[in-house]
Amino acid sequence: xxxxxxxxxxxxxxxxxxxxxxxxxxxxxxxxxxxxxxxxxxxxxxxxxxxxxxxxxxxxxxxxxxxxxxxxxxxxxxxxxxxxxxxxxxxxxxxxxxxxxxxxxxxxxxxxxxxxxxxxxxxxxxxxxxxxxxxxxxxxxxxxxxxxxxxxxxxxxxxxxxxxxxxxxxxxxxxxxxxxxxxxxxxxxxxxxxxxxxxxxxxxxxxxxxxxxxxxxxxxxxxxxxxxxxxxxxxxxxxxxxxxxxxxxxxxxxxxxxxxxxxxxxxxxxxxxxxxxxxxxxxxxxxxxxxxxxxxxxxxxxxxxxxxxxxxxxxxxxxxxxxxxxxxxxxxxxxxxxxxxxxxxxxxxxxxxxxxxxxxxxxxxxxx
Length: 368
Prior knowledge:
The chain has 15 helices and 13 strands. With 368 residues, the protein is α/β, with parallel strands linked by helices. It has a 7-stranded parallel sheet, sandwiched between helices. The chain has a 6-stranded parallel sheet with strand order 10-9-8-11-12-13, sandwiched between helices. Helix 7 packs across helix 10 and helix 11 (281-288) crosses helix 14 (332-350).
């Protein structure tokens, strides 16, 4: 199977593709390969896992020759390798390359990672011109939107295969706190995601401002600017924390590649989305690590987090987030109980062997 993607950023899709590479021995009926437009962290991870990607070259739709060049390289790859199926991840790669896959006679699958709006998005409009044989959606929430673009194509929901991180020694967790100038006894709230406004960083900052006079907490915000506007957003968040008088308790960590260490050293993952999360790999990773999750009651978050492992709060309400966090500060027993429920919940939803096997079975039907 050939996974087709851009590869210039790093988020949930990239983590899924890395999982296909790292865990490929769990589903030996699939042999993954990758075609990317851009080098970067994802390409490096795939190479380290022993599955180097074919680089088709950077693509800009505003520069048609870059698109033609990448399509030519993809067509050459498809004809040379004789793939059984190709999977485009998200609307942009589908818009760019679905026609090439179809012309080469390779069965085509679309993996929906974000809600599809339909005609409002230019790439979705282009993608609709080449309907796939199957749509895989990462949640029930995302699946409900897929008919907006592919009304006649069958959609199957597959919660993403997510592997638990290797355990981190307590001494290493303590070292993280020391590195980040965080008291050993504080309750640490972690948000680790891309710097997109709908992820709810500003809601978390406002909530923490309401806890200014509550002792015993520190917040870590991991994630660096990857797109235009994100650096400005980060500056806004930092300025707002200063205005609320909590700048000394909020650590902006920038882009991190050691999220497992951060999770091991933190106590709670808090991501109070103002917009719906399509799925939420970060939530699942936190549950595997035994960390309660506080997130908004919408989108994929409500499919991942239940009362056994976390707290769902109304979206866009800092007061509700503050109340949930205050309870977790004051009630260590409840914090521990929610953390204990996390691994079972994560395993039930996202066990890699089971989820990869489900993907393989779905693709087999397309191939046949």
